[in-house]
Write a structure and sequence with these properties.
CATH class of the largest domain in chain B: Alpha Beta
Shape of chain B: globular
Order of helices and strands of chain A: HHHHEEHHHHHEEHEEHEEE
Order of helices and strands of chain B: EHEHEHEHEHEHHHHHH
Low-confidence stretches of chain B: none
Low-confidence stretches of chain A: 1-26
Radius of gyration of chain B: 17 Å
Mean pLDDT of chain A: 82
Number of helices of chain B: 11
Helix content of chain B: 40-55%
Largest interface: A-B, 27 and 30 residues
Largest sheet of chain B: 6 strands, parallel
Radius of gyration of chain A: 32 Å
CATH superfamily of the largest domain in chain B: Response regulator
Number of domains of chain A: 3
CATH topology of the largest domain in chain B: Rossmann fold
Oligomer: heterodimer
Strand content of chain B: 5-15%
């Protein structure tokens, strides 16, 4: 019940988590004329469940002493966070206001009533929970006014437009006083009645002009309530850095051990054997030239094998084609070597930092291996581009889907590998496919080196 | 036969010079950087260029790029590229101009000097020499290709050897069968892949490589 799947996993501030469909979203386009009032209405409509959740929060807090609250609270908090995340997302999409999620990362859930009690304590000790609660009550009061204003101005303006045509009916129905700003209409249709459409147009103009501003103001207001406070942001950042640094150090140490072992058991051992063989050849050269020749052949084979092992090792450390050509061609080379047909589109007018290049390359390589192994896909599409200060890679396959970061170590490994660069991975893989994996790594792009030949 | 050689590691360069001279080749120039290679090729117009992929000053694919550049300036210039590793991507780029006289081999192939010299002569004569590793990758990369799936194991083996650039006689020697049997296999392969058969070894190789590269 509690959102711990990779898609919704609560992320510390400072990392941006996005849903796949938004991965390619550019900075929000300026809204069309009719959009802000409608968006305002949609935002206002959300205040109703918000208020309901506030009431539920209060109830579960009051009954926390009894068992009911312990069962209820995690569910309510999850619902609040879901709604708050929706508001954060809408603030970004509709007003360009980015709001990071301030939640602390939660430890894995423990079973039983005691586990639920622990979960409640974890949730309540997170300041973000209390700020969310404040939002559920404060936003309906202030936010509703901001959200309804654009539509209200338009409705009021439209009323002015139709005013002259219905005024006589209103008067005969006994309603003969109307105030519009400073203008007071009274009695029979007259000059003032016909001023009403003008006033109405002014209000419509005002509504259309102020609409986007009001929606943006709503977004900003949402940020003051739902955005992380700077101290919380810093604390979360430190936590994130510590965690990713730990992962990097661990994986590097493991990598070095693997290289050491490969060299020790592979090339090094072969060189020793070759040295011994050559010594034997020297002994045999005069007495038994035939045997010496056979040994020499064996030694040559040995050196070939040692070279091929070293080649594989080098490829695993840093593939030569990556240093030669950069990420684009290295991925094209991967695609050529894949048993699946892979379409690669690259839009990188330059080179990336070597560590980013390497992390991205191995992430793509791992994803591609996953697809070949598990997806039963007939085709794969890879798209690589650098856009808005981030490297964006998406890989889509037409396979059976059902891939989840929590299921295998592969996706986890990729996640932690790119997390060291504040990169994120989102996987959208419904049962039955298709699967789309998207990576985003903030980084700079350097202008291409000028060829010296 | 005159050779321009580009290899930045002194030991390897000297080794290659010694090997080639011993087999009666004349070394027109032995250089160690990409720009020097291009200059030497244009100045000496050798019968074949032997090029290491990774060369100074960038220590990336300098040699490969110089070789491709030289072939565009001197059309048909035979080039044999040597490398510590082989990439299908690079093989495709070398083959892209569709004319022969291209070789792409792992440096280890030098160990077998007889075969290596054979490759050098073949490329110089306008043929091709693809490393078995490249051919294996090319075949694996076309695993989902339906016509390839219809080949028998023996036909695939023959196809691989053709792609490496070998003549029927060489394939026959390698497989320990008669040349007639090989001819039968190759004609089967060409029919199944819907390729225009050709008696000319070079054109035959190019057709196969073009097929695998498409």
């Amino acid at each position: 019940m509690f959102p711990e799947r990779s898609q919704d996993r609560l992320m510390p501030a400072g990392t941006k988590r996005f849903r796949t469909e938004e991965a390619r979203m550019t900075t929000p386009a300026p809204p069309k004329l009719w959009q802000p009032p409608l968006r305002g209405l949609a935002l206002a409509a959300q205040k109703v469940p918000q208020l309901a959740l506030f009431v539920l929060m209060v109830i579960s807090l009051v009954y926390l002493g009894l068992g009911v609250g312990v069962l209820l609270l995690p569910l309510v908090v999850a619902a609040v966070r879901k709604l708050a995340n929706r508001s954060r997302r809408l603030a970004h999409v509709w007003s360009g206001v980015r709001i990071a999620q301030p939640y602390r990362e939660l430890p894995p859930r423990e079973p039983g009533f005691f586990g639920r009690w622990r979960r409640c304590r974890q949730l309540l000790s997170d300041p973000a929970t209390w700020r969310d609660m404040l939002w559920t009550i404060a936003d309906p009061v202030v936010g509703t006014v901001l959200a309804l204003m654009p539509a209200a101005l338009l409705v009021y303006g439209l009323e002015g437009l139709v005013f002259p045509f219905v005024w006589d009916d209103l008067v005969s129905a006994g309603y003969d006083d109307h105030y519009a700003g400073l203008i007071h209409v009274h009695g029979e249709t007259g000059l003032r009645t016909w001023l009403m459409p003008l006033v109405g147009m002014v209000f419509i103009g005002l509504g259309l002009w102020a609409g986007p501003k009001l929606v943006t103001a709503h977004g900003r207001f949402t940020r003051t309530l739902l955005g992380p406070r700077s101290s919380a942001e810093l604390a979360a950042r430190v936590g994130h850095l510590t965690r990713t640094r730990g992962a990097v150090v661990d994986s590097q140490a493991a990598e070095l051990r693997r290289i050491e072992r490969d060299l020790h058991d592979g090339a090094q051992a072969r060189l020793v054997a070759m040295g011994m063989n050559l010594d034997a050849v020297e002994q045999l050269l005069d007495s038994n030239p035939e045997a010496a020749r056979a040994l020499l052949m064996e030694t040559r084979d040995s050196s070939s094998k040692a070279l091929s092992e070293l080649r594989d090792l080098v490829r695993g450390i840093h593939p030569p084609v990556l240093s030669d050509r950069g990420l684009g061609d290295a991925v094209r080379a991967l695609a050529l070597d894949s048993p699946l047909p892979v379409d690669v589109v690259v839009d990188l007018p330059g080179r990336l930092d070597a560590p980013v290049e390497s992390a991205a390359y191995f992430a793509v390589s791992e994803l591609l291996t996953n697809v070949a192994k598990h997806a039963k896909a007939g085709r794969v599409w890879i798209d690589i581009r650098h856009d808005r200060d981030a490297l964006r890679i998406s890989m889509t396959d037409d396979g059976v889907g059902g891939a989840a970061a929590s299921a295998g170590t592969g996706l986890r490994g990729i996640e932690s590998r790119i997390a060291a660069f504040d990169g994120i991975l989102a996987v959208n893989s419904p049962q039955g496919g298709p699967t789309m994996a998207t990576m985003e790594i903030p980084c700079a792009l350097f202008s291409p080196k000028t060829s010296s030949s | 036969m005159r050779i321009v050689l580009a290899e930045d590691l002194f030991l390897l360069r000297e080794g290659l010079v010694r090997l080639l001279t011993a087999h009666g080749f004349e070394i027109a120039a032995a250089v160690d950087t990409g720009p020097a290679l291009l200059d030497a090729l244009i100045e000496h117009r050798p019968d074949i260029a032997l090029v290491d992929v990774r060369l100074p000053p960038t220590f990336t694919d300098e040699g490969l790029r110089a070789a491709i550049e030289a072939r565009s300036r001197i059309p048909g210039l035979p080039v044999l590229v040597l490398s510590q590793y082989v990439e299908q991507l690079y093989a495709r780029e070398l083959l892209a101009d569709g004319s022969g006289g291209v070789g792409y081999l792992l440096k280890d192939r030098v160990f077998d000097s007889r075969q290596f010299i054979d490759c050098v002569r073949r490329v110089a004569a306008g043929g091709s020499a693809m490393d078995p590793d490249v051919v294996v990758k090319l075949l694996a990369g076309n695993a989902s290709d339906a016509p390839l799936g219809r080949l028998t194991a023996r036909e695939r083996e023959v196809l691989g050897l053709v792609a490496e650039g070998r003549s029927n006689a060489a394939i026959a020697g390698r497989l320990g069968v008669s040349e007639k049997v090989v001819t039968k296999h190759t004609s089967n392969v060409f029919t199944k892949l819907d390729l225009v058969p050709s008696d000319d070894d070079n054109r035959r190789v190019l057709a196969v490589l073009a097929y695998l590269n498409s």
